[in-house]
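Hi V.,

Quick status before I head out on leave. The structure for the redesign project is tokenized and pasted below; the design run finished overnight.
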């Protein structure tokens, strides 16, 4: 059900300094668990259609390959009354108390169906119903925001891509940046007109467990595990019957992709350094427990030019509960496990 708000926008924020002008340094970690070489039998690389909307200055200045995947607060504050966009709040809580004017609410649980193997995607019919109810049509530019560095918006972003909708972006810094800059908020519901959405499926973004199994040790395919150290080591099973990793996986922790204080994505140079162990020409399959954190990391890879990225949405929730799938022991170490 759509929950939303309307409110006049505040005076122009054009004088705000881009957050990207404040460089930040932080050590990132990449734990290589196995290397696999080149060439894979995957369909043509995922096609990307650049947004017709101008990119935000912050995203452009950061040197991203696809700056249209992000918008900043300045851009969004100037487009609150734009009828061609739909702002979507994907926070776990807080929408009813306060949200960005004009935003509608989407429960991120609708972006994965645990009862729908092998893809674990929601049915096209079910997700289309959700989109139409909150006023998203084929010509709508969708802007997701949350309060967790974008992780609650990137899985819905990917599901939209599987339905052929390319006009989708994330608000860089999300709710944190919006409120930090004292931009307008409201508790009023947004009245939306139901809109027709025609899905145009693009399944190049998704892989199944069987496809992952068949790709193990295949030249040109890399697996990226985005989970916590405790999950990798099998100390935190989160409902799985066994721990470990997919054989030959490389561990790159998902929270390294954004600034922990500003909640904005790291610059292109920082992200490329984080992903330095990965060849941009390879097929890269990301996974976590349920596809949320890995969708976020996949988004960051695509942002800086990794074209052949795919999500294993079943992730460890499926792999860790199937005895017919191979498991390897993780033997890496880090100084600390920073996440819960």
């Amino acid at each position: 059900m759509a929950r939303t708000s309307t409110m006049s926008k505040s005076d122009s924020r054009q004088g705000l300094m881009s957050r990207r002008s404040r460089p930040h340094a932080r050590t990132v970690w990449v734990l290589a668990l196995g290397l696999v070489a080149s060439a894979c039998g995957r369909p043509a690389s995922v096609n990307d259609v650049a947004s017709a909307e101008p990119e935000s200055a912050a995203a452009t200045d950061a040197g991203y390959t696809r700056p249209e995947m992000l918008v900043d607060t300045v851009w969004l504050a100037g487009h609150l009354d734009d009828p061609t966009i739909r702002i979507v709040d994907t926070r776990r809580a807080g929408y009813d108390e306060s949200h960005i004017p004009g935003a509608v609410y989407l429960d991120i649980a609708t972006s994965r169906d645990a009862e729908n193997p092998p893809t674990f995607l929601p049915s096209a019919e079910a997700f289309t119903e959700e989109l139409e109810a909150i006023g998203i049509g084929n010509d709508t530019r969708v802007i997701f925001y949350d309060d967790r560095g974008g992780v609650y918006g990137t899985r819905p972003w990917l599901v939209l891509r599987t339905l052929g909708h390319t006009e989708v972006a994330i608000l860089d810094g999300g709710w944190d940046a919006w409120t930090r800059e004292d931009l307008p908020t409201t508790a009023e519901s947004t009245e939306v007109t139901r809109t027709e959405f025609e899905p145009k499926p693009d399944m190049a973004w998704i892989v199944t467990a069987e496809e992952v199994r068949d790709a193990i040790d295949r030249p040109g395919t890399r697996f990226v595990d985005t989970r916590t150290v405790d999950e990798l080591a099998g100390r935190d099973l989160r409902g799985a019957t066994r721990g470990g990793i997919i054989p030959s996986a490389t561990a790159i922790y998902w929270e390294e992709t954004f600034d922990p204080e500003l909640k904005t994505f790291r610059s292109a140079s920082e992200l490329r350094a984080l992903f330095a162990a990965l060849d941009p020409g390879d097929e890269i399959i990301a996974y976590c427990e349920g596809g949320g954190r890995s969708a976020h990391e996949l988004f960051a890879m695509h942002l800086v030019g990794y074209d052949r990225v795919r999500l294993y949405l079943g992730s460890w929730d499926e792999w860790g509960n199937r005895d017919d799938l191979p498991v390897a022991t993780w033997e890496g170490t880090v100084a600390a496990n920073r996440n819960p």
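Above is the designed sequence. The CA atoms of residues 51 and 129 lie 24 Å apart.

G. will cover questions while I'm gone.

Best,
W.
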